[in-house]
Design brief:
The chain has two domains: 114 residues, Creatine Amidinohydrolase, Chain A, domain 1; 229 residues, Creatine Amidinohydrolase. Helix content is 33%, strand content 23%.
Length: 361
């Protein structure tokens, strides 16, 4: 297989980033195996079959002269016919399924190729979204928020199990071509007991929380919403949610291009203390940058990398019994604020952040 010639579609912004990455690292090209990176480089193409696997059903080989999707004869017809891959300048080369791995090993031995598996070096390349990616993320965020909020506003009933609620969320998202990578559902005391409450058969008695990480065409957004059956919130829950909203608002306000993640986290930690819950930040991670992963990495007290322009961010502060979470997009420079990509629609807000919806029993 030769690697001469050029791209029929021209050099895209993502191609230019990969070219710069190869030049800086002295690489002949890049071999992509992770589904997130493959969707990023492939214009939002979907490379999944087994949702439990981080690896795609193909291998993308990018060089300055040629872009080839190596796959087998099982996957090539759908990739060619239904995905934007070829429109992005990728050639699809189908191999017999029993030869694909051997041919790939031969290619890697013939040059100096960077690869994203098992260690992914491409975070810096994909962190800032292109204009087309921003449009896709906005659409995904609005639709995901709309699905979750409608279900919580109209469909949840007392006695419904966490399994039923989680299934409804996942099903209605799939109806819009959205995969629910993460669906956390907790009823009543499980909200305070567990920070990552996977659904169970427990029925809802008074309060329910749903948290999702939703993916379409590679990009991911996350959000959390809570509903309480009763005219007003219990005083303790109201106080806790007001505190977590204060933290979330502080984190949104401090997320500016060029700011170090450790410094942004420190502002959130101070907001926890100001709200009366100084130790709650230690009980769960607070989030961090995202895009083609649920979180590219978590903001920690020692994370000195900086916030990028046009970057998706998911902060998810918690105070035992409640949580506040949406996906935001950073601005183009340090002076710009953030845009909420999962906006609350017909949903109550408090201090600019989603409140807990109170419903009649």
């Amino acid at each position: 297989m030769g690697w001469g010639g050029g791209y029929t579609a021209g050099m895209s912004e993502i191609d230019e980033r990969l070219a710069a990455f190869c030049t800086a690292g002295g690489h002949d090209g890049v071999v992509l195996r992770r589904r997130g990176n493959m969707s990023w480089a492939g214009g939002g193409s979907d490379f999944h079959c087994d949702t439990a696997s981080s690896l795609g059903i193909a291998t993308l080989v990018w060089t300055p002269g040629r872009k080839v999707c190596w796959t087998d004869t099982i996957e090539s017809p759908r990739l060619t016919a239904e995905e934007p891959l070829t429109r992005e300048g990728w050639e699809v080369e189908a191999l017999p399924w029993w030869e694909a791995d051997t041919r790939l090993a031969s290619l890697l031995a013939s040059g100096r190729y960077a690869t994203d598996w098992p260690v992914d070096p491409l975070y810096e390349c994909r962190a800032s979204l292109t204009a087309a990616e921003v449009d896709r993320a906005r659409s995904l965020g609005r639709e995901t928020a709309g699905v979750v909020e409608r279900i919580m506003r109209e469909d949840v009933k007392l006695g419904m199990t966490e399994f039923h609620l989680g299934g409804a969320v996942a099903g209605w998202l799939r109806d819009r071509g959205i995969f629910a990578h993460v669906v956390l559902v907790a009823a009543d005391d499980r909200i305070a007991a567990y920070r990552h409450p996977i659904p169970t058969a427990k029925p809802i008695e008074r309060t329910a929380m749903v948290a999702v990480c939703a993916q379409r065409r590679g990009l991911i957004v996350s959000l959390t919403r809570l509903v309480h059956f009763g005219a007003t919130l219990p005083e303790d829950l109201s106080r806790r949610h007001a505190a977590v909203i204060g933290v979330d608002r502080a984190l949104h306000g401090t997320t500016r291009v060029g700011r170090r993640w450790c410094d942004a986290l420190a502002d959130g930690v101070r907001a926890y203390a100001a709200g009366g819950y100084p130790d709650e930040w230690t009980k769960h991670h607070q989030g961090g940058p995202m895009g083609y992963e649920c979180r590219d990495f978590k903001a920690t007290p020692t994370e000195t990398r900086a916030v990028k322009p046009r970057q998706l961010v998911g902060w998810n502060p918690t105070v035992s019994g409640t949580k506040s979470e949406d996906t935001i997009l950073t601005g183009t420079d340090a002076s710009a604020g953030v845009e909420v990509m999962t906006p609350a629609g017909d949903w109550p807000t408090e201090g600019g952040r989603p409140a807990i919806l109170c419903r009649k029993a």
